[in-house]
Amino acid sequence: MKRTTLLVVVILVFSFFLAATTMAFPSLPEDLNIIAPDPSLPKELAAFSGKWEGKAGRLEFFLIVEKIDEEKATLRLSKGPGWETMPAQVVKEYGKWKIWFTGRSGKNELSIRGEYIDLYVFGGRGGTVTFTRVP
């Protein structure tokens, strides 16, 4: 009986720590309309499309690339309960697709790195946030 109780306690504690590392995606905006990229869009650029989550220190970030083409994108960004909609410019630099947008801290850049998106913040304190795709 003691072994069973100990096993249950260990499983519960382990489950608690696993749950604590999972981020809770905030409620999606009511007017959200993720538009699938045109099939003719380069796959490296189309890969930006969709929902993403990232963390920098204790701050959780959520990103939605709602619409994208070879010139512009529409982004939704959340660092808390609400969402901010931002227009963005799509560019190809040195053979790599990037998305530039202006946020509260100034100029920002999104770039694809394998299965991740890196956000480089150039204004304010600067820094990087790495995002992973959310199903």
List its salient traits:
single chain; 135 residues; alpha+beta; Lipocalin; eight-stranded antiparallel β-barrel; 2 helices; 17% helix; 47% strand
How is this structure best described in words?
The structure is a single chain. With 135 residues, the chain is of the alpha+beta class. It has a domain at 43-134: Calycin beta-barrel core domain (Lipocalin, Beta Barrel). Helix content is 17%, strand content 47%. The protein is built from 2 helices and 8 strands; from the N terminus they run H-H-E-E-E-E-E-E-E-E. It has helices at 2-20, 43-46; strands at 50-56, 59-68, 72-78, 84-93, 96-103, 106-113, 116-121, 127-134. An 8-stranded antiparallel β-barrel has the order 1-2-3-4-5-6-7-8. Strand 6 and strand 7 (116-121) form a beta hairpin. The model is unreliable at 4-22 (pLDDT under 50).
